[in-house]
From TrEMBL:
InterPro entries: Reg_prop (IPR011110), WD40/YVTN_repeat-like_dom_sf (IPR015943). PROSITE patterns: PROKAR_LIPOPROTEIN. It holds the Pfam family Reg_prop. This is Two component regulator propeller. It comes from the Bacteria.
Amino acid sequence: MQRFKYILLILVFTISCKTKKHNTNKRDSKNDLVINVGKTFSVISKFDTIFKPNAPKRITRNIKLDNEGRLLIAAYDDIVRYNGDSFTKLVKPEGIESWYAFDVLEDSKENIWIASDQSGVFRIDSETGAVTNFTTKDGLGHLRNMCVYEDKAGNIWIGGQGGLSKYDGSKFTNFTLEDGLPHNDINTILEDNKGNIWFGTRGNAGLYDGNTFTEIKNDEGKSFFNVWSIIEDKSNNIWLVDSSGLWKHRNNTFTHELPDVWKIYEDTKGGFWYTGMLKGGSSTLKRIEASSLIDEKLEITEVFKTERMFFGVVEDKEGNLWIGGGDGIWQYNGETIEYYTGIIKK
């Protein structure tokens, strides 16, 4: 009898769960998605794969917002815009089969910049649509680039395997080990509220105050290693992710907060999201509640995990969360998960 009551409770709970809204797009629901409510796995559901024309087909390491709040997606071969309904690929010039894009940016003048890991940097002019390919022949430091960033003065910073490059609108200035740069292989760039340029590398992390480069170290005086993500939150704290996980900068030093973190992101409500790669190849998306940052006792909720890869995270103007994937992108709207890809499975 007791066993019967237990089974009945499970059935009632399952039936009362909110059903997903109908969508006429072609879907594939064969992949299990595990959603964590609170701190205990309590619901096992399915994520939907939505096949959309022009959606990303290749690895998507970074997703940005353009000046109108639309998604701007670096999908390696293609740069893709998403307006909330459809995906559109930016047109490549004749002779270019792939951007080899690791990062993308729309600058304050509405020009599109593409960091290519094969071909230097591309700029698409906002007025004419003309594509300029900057290479080492134009003064760029290296052809293999991982990130692109605009500072408050309008300078464009490019990071790659040959150090840092700054473009002031007319020329490139390059910084390498010979100029005091702690490492030549740059993964990520950030300007803080004081105008300092932070950068993460495959070897360590550093800071440039406009005159001098300084290597950043943790609370034990040790160097960071393989830094993929640096952000500044709304309270002007710096958060850094390296191979050992998440670090927070407080009282002029970094302290370790969490392991197994890949990318960190702060949403409009002051909560933090991060992607992580777990042992065995699984990826996860977790949230740190904003209220728990006050007393520094982090309250973490695992939203979902999958056997596929996760990369960069961004929030759109409707409050949906988007995550870059291995051959597409994920959307989390607070209730459901959808996976968008341009690969049509037969």
